[in-house]
Amino acid sequence: MQGVLSLVDTDPEAGGFQCVPELFRTFDQWLAAQPADRHPFFPDTSGFEIQFVPMKSGDLLIWNTLLAHGIRPNTSSDRARMAQYVSMYPADEGNLSARESRIRCWSEREIPDDPAFPGDPREWEKKRYGRAALTGLGEKLLGLRSWK
């Protein structure tokens, strides 16, 4: 699951969440027609309508990560789009290297090695804040403790 908490009102010019909900209807056929070297973040969505989802300050949008989604560019000359993104998926207990990477990121307050997570260029996570305290559930989700 993923989510975004909008900290300001959004509109198409200022950017924000957009998605292609109709892609689910023909996903298998669409995927089969895509070239092997397609860009994972900029796929060909020809024939589908990209829908902008306007949000008010304080709105929380939650969606399944399988939904084709992205961020509409901010083309305004004087407004910033501000939002907090949330992503959650339990650790895969069978994938030791992925689990260790998650634990290291949490422990060292590092960004994941993934182009989908651009990180914290100001390094506030490291410089201003301590490591997040986890509950028992948090330890299981991270992969520190087993679900068994």
Protein described:
The protein is an alpha+beta fold and 148 residues long. The chain has two domains: 1-88, no CATH class; 89-148, no CATH class. It is 21% helix and 16% strand. The chain is built from four helices and six strands, in the order E-E-H-E-E-E-E-H-H-H. The protein has helices at 27-33, 96-108, 124-127, 136-142, and strands at 2-6, 16-19, 51-52, 60-63, 69-72, 83-87. The strands form two sheets. The chain has a three-stranded antiparallel sheet, with no helix packed on it. It has a three-stranded antiparallel sheet with strand order 3-2-5, with no helix packed on it. The longest helix has 13 residues, at 96-108. It is globular. The two termini are 22 Å apart. The mean pLDDT is 89.
Question: Tags for this entry?
Answer:
148 residues; alpha+beta; 2 domains; three-stranded antiparallel β-sheet; 4 helices; 21% helix; globular
As a percent range, the share of helical residues equals 10-25%
Radius of gyration: 18 Å
Class of secondary structure makeup: alpha+beta
Poorly predicted tracts of residues: none
Task: State the order of secondary-structure elements, H for helix, E for strand.
Answer: EEHEEEEHHH
Major beta sheet, strand line-up: 4-1-6
User: Helix count, per DSSP?
Assistant: 4
Instruction: Note the main sheet.
Output: 3 strands, antiparallel
Proportion of beta-strand residues: 15-25%
In whole angstroms, the N-to-C terminal distance is 22 Å
- The count of domains is 2
Taken from the alpha-carbon principal axes, the silhouette is globular
The overall pLDDT, averaged over residues, is 89
Count of strand segments: 6
